[in-house]
């Protein structure tokens, strides 16, 4: 969300909860914690909150579970990239040259 969207959302919250701080200062302070959440998602979370709670929503309630979903998606992509790299490395892998194991054992004076 951008600053205007946060202000718009806070106006909706203020309308339902008179003691909610919807000041410009509150919008600016909270923007950093809400900027990665799409407005539609936050609006839906606030609507659900209004229908189920007598108290104004906190940042975590405005965010809903999307923050966790975004983190899971980031980790899923990172895991896919790692698996892809491992598969690519596996395709490039070749067995050691013949006689390498025996030569290594001989240098270390290990009986095989």
UniProtKB/TrEMBL annotation:
Determine the domain of life of the protein's source.
Answer: Bacteria
Descriptive protein name: Replicative helicase inhibitor G39P N-terminal domain-containing protein
- Organism phylogeny: Bacteria, Bacillati, Bacillota, Bacilli, Bacillales
